[in-house]
Amino acid sequence: MTEYDKNHDTRRSQAAIDRVRGLIGDNRLAIADRIAELYNHYIPLDRDLLLRDALMALVASVTTPITGKPDKRRIVAVCGRSGAGKTTAIMKHIGNLKAMSSYVDEDGVMIHPVIFMEAESPCTPRLLAIKGLEALGHTPQDRIRENEAWLLFRRLLKVHKVMWVVIDEAQNAIETANVRQATVIGDAFKSLTQMPQWPVRLILAGVPPLASFLARKQLYNRRTVVPFDSVDADGVVNVIASVVRTIVIEHAGMELRIPLDDAAYRNDDEDDTLTTQAYQFLKRLMHACDNEFGSVVQLVRAAVELAILADREYVTVDDFVKTYASFSGCKPSKNVFEAANWEDLDPSIALLRDEDKAWEEARLQSKGKRATKYGVRPQ
User: Fold this and answer.
1) Which pick of 68, 238, 285, 306 has the fewest CB atoms within 10 Å?
2) Mind listing the pLDDT tens digit for each residue in 198-215?
3) Is residue 375 classed as helix, strand or coil in its secondary structure?
């Protein structure tokens, strides 16, 4: 795909968006822009310092003469469960690094030193190479072979002056891979980082089994791992309270009608513990999001969005109740923000009804298996 084709597609896409924006009215358009601005903010944690340092190290490694002794650590892997905020963090930090920004070279050509690709599921070594070619704007032949695809991908990385390759959902490349395919992927990652005259740096984001895959010998001493662990439900209650206040009050400019003021609602016997009312709300919020920070931010923003759409300038617990119901599809009696037994509820299977559970159990029994937990495949 030529630069003209890319610009033409961009203009056509923007024209379609502008058409819809012109049809919804100024009032609704202002609301949409306000919501878009809300989602544009970023909330950093301590782990962001580790990620930024790792990315800066990748940038610094480029300054080492290509002909000199190679720096083996040319892979940064961000590992964590779904909803941890991996992709958002990577995009944010890359956007803040000037060395990774697009530029016009001496020939007047727009250069994008970073390309983004997603490993689809299921994925094979050949399909991953094709995704890389497509990320470069190249359409390979339908019957291109695996080794040809990788050779072409490596050559075009240098032609396009790409220095960093981001692979999102990287676990898909090896989750269903057999021994040969996993070895091919590992060798491909290794060869990308040590190409003669043009070694690239890889930034991988994924859930298990990505961490396990990166532990293999061929990659172990070539990667830096930044873990995006789940938040400690007992240890970061005040952090989550700060996140809620930041999004509602600072980012949205709204009133928070949920008592989270540490000073006013502190237990006299335990100076660092919130009162039952505030503490229980925050614990329910984390449970509803499976203790994943990215999911917490997403749910809080969605609750704020609900209030904005209702033409209110304040957020209440009821906004969280309705947002969770929309996200999970739960029954009213099974809403984490209202149920007395909220700790026993599993948000991941809240959508399942009795007939769904009966069908799943019958299906497993027909195969000679026994369901131990709905939504979890027996091992």
Assistant:
1) 68
2) 999 999 999 988 888 888
3) coil
